[in-house]
Amino acid sequence: MITRRKAMQVLAGGMVGAPAVLSAASQAGSPAGAPAVLGGPRSPGDKPNLLFLWTDEQRADTMAAYGNTRFRVPAMNRLASQSVVFDRPYVTQPVCTPSRSCVMTGWWPHQSGCVRNGIPLKAATQTVPELVGDSTYRTAYMGKWHLADEIFPQHGFEEWKAIEDAIYRSRYSAGRDKNARSAYHHFLVSLGYKPDEENDFSRNFAARLPVEHSKPSFLANEASNFILRHRAEPWILYVNFLEPHMPFASALDDLHSEEDAPLKNFPGTALGPEPAWYKRRRGELAGAKKVKGIGPEQRAKLQRQARNYAGLCSLVDQALNRILWTLEVTGQADNTIIVYTSDHGDMMGAHGLMAKQVMYEEAVRVPLLVRVPFLRIKLRHVAQPVSHIDIVPTLMELLGRKGPDLPGRSLVPVLDGENRPDNYVHLEWTADSSDSGEGPNGRTVVSLDGYKLVLYDSDQSMLFDHNKDPLELNNVYGKPEYTAVQARLRKKIEEWQKQTQDSMILPA
After folding, report:
1. Domain span at 170
2. Domain CATH code at residue 404
3. Measured on CA atoms in the order 218, 224, 228, 229, is the torsion positive or negative?
4. Has residue 100 been placed in a domain?
5. pLDDT tens-digit series, residues 94-123
6. CA separation for the pair 14, 165 (Å, rounded)
7. Is residue 439 part of a domain?
8. pTM for the predicted model, two decimal places
9. Which of 105, 371, 380, 442 lies at 20 to 30 Å from 177 by C-alpha?
10. Reduced to 3 DSSP states, what percent helix, strand and coil does the chain have, rounded to the nearest 5?
11. Does any domain span residue 498?
């Protein structure tokens, strides 16, 4: 039994390379109130650290700050209580690679060229460490990357701890060693596990492992060791958890009951016209060539997945707790910017749909928490919609750097209480963006006064009035009473297209 005091003594002794000890120590107590140890932590006046934490496929309504008090995610809830909480954050495109490219670079997918899954992030397109350009910063990327060359250090990150292998190997650049394996692969081998697919560990294999051998726990150990080793110098650390992404399974599948994790907005039957593409996706889920609705068997499957999804959020949470505990116990919490978000959401049965790739709220709205302890800002909820496009400009300002002229705007004034009455949030979708190779081209705008317009070039467009229809059941596109709203929002999309050199042709 390792007590909290013993753990502190071990850590103070410099035993950085002992993740098992750190894991046990993390369970001895929460970050709250932990004393600063290890000597020599930098003061808030020094160069701030950046801890960027993000997940894959996590909806906004998975923590208490967004109205969910049933999911067991105490570390997320605690972080939210210490942060500015953005109530309506939107991704730039609801699928992995395009969204990630924006979060890492500050460019729209159509500007960076990462408009579909599997497109590499160009070497010349800079990420935050490259934009900061300060050699005194230690930098690391840990977890899922999904911007090509998955397991190899790149884009200004000195240390690299990958967790994914076979699914991305076919997209390695010429000259990359296809026999190389991720850090997580080697971690499992060191524990005596044997790969289940040729020389790879599949996602399904990893999902069956005990908590301490899961991907989130592996990342918690690696991130904590990085924070410990570099406590006397500035650092930038990105940690990206695969979870709660499919395959929707973990050791915590039965942690939540059906009451804890109910299906939301299900079946969410559309009252107005809906894109044919959405109907096809629903038909596939129902197991029918024609849409016949979701029967009892499919509903039971969705309910089971909802419980598992909640468990995956808890799996991430225990890892998050350990990372934040290390930050606190090493005396660095007061000099570290923390951002928490996700690359997109997941329908999880809402509107009878699964996955992302559509413009419904469940797929495009994500959590966004920003903690800047050394700024005198009031902790609050920001009600106005914001976009992932604003993240990189925000980070550059918080880090005291002047970056390139990016399309987004810094949220630092918003953190300090400013409202943007002219704020419109844009989203995009490129045909064939997902691995399934589906969908028309689309452009979306969300307004401050509660409307969302979705224009597709070869499918049914949509307009939702969130003031009357928060669940987006009634598409009012084309209705006479919304003519003025529709024209105003279309003009906003046209203006945005001109500003960002977007060439998609809008429907007549």
Report:
1. 31-423
2. 3.40.720.10
3. positive
4. yes
5. 999 999 999 999 999 999 999 998 899 999
6. 32
7. no
8. 0.90
9. 105
10. 35, 15, 50
11. no
